[in-house]
Specification:
The chain contains two helices and six strands, in the order αββββββα. By secondary structure, it is of the alpha+beta class. The chain has one domain.
């Protein structure tokens, strides 16, 4: 997990830079968007499969539609929550921080 970047920062989170580099090394895939989750959400990477003309989330392999319901091309994938953290709707699972028995007492 790394430091949360400012709003609309066009940088890759440093803690997932190596994964992004590996994905982009394969000419079939192109990274479109990514977020490490910053301890609040699971890490997600939106990837374009140029061979099959499809977008999907790298870890879950869930397909992401190329267009919105009104037939506009999808350019934004993430939604911002009330605390300023971005997540993929229907894919991102909040990280659960469990207390140890000692902390719970």
């Amino acid at each position: 997990m790394c430091k949360k970047l400012p709003y609309c920062a066009r940088y890759i989170d440093s803690c997932i830079m190596s994964v992004i580099s590996e994905i982009n090394a394969d000419s079939q895939y192109r990274t479109l968007a990514s977020c490490c989750g910053h301890g609040k959400y699971a890490t997600t990477i939106v990837v374009r499969d140029t061979l099959h003309n499809q977008n999907f989330e790298w870890f879950s392999k869930l397909m992401i539609p190329l267009r919105y319901a009104n037939d506009k091309i999808r350019r934004r994938f993430y939604i911002k929550d009330t605390h300023g953290y971005y997540f993929l709707p229907n894919i991102s699972i909040p990280c659960v921080v469990r207390k140890t028995r000692r902390e719970a007492i």
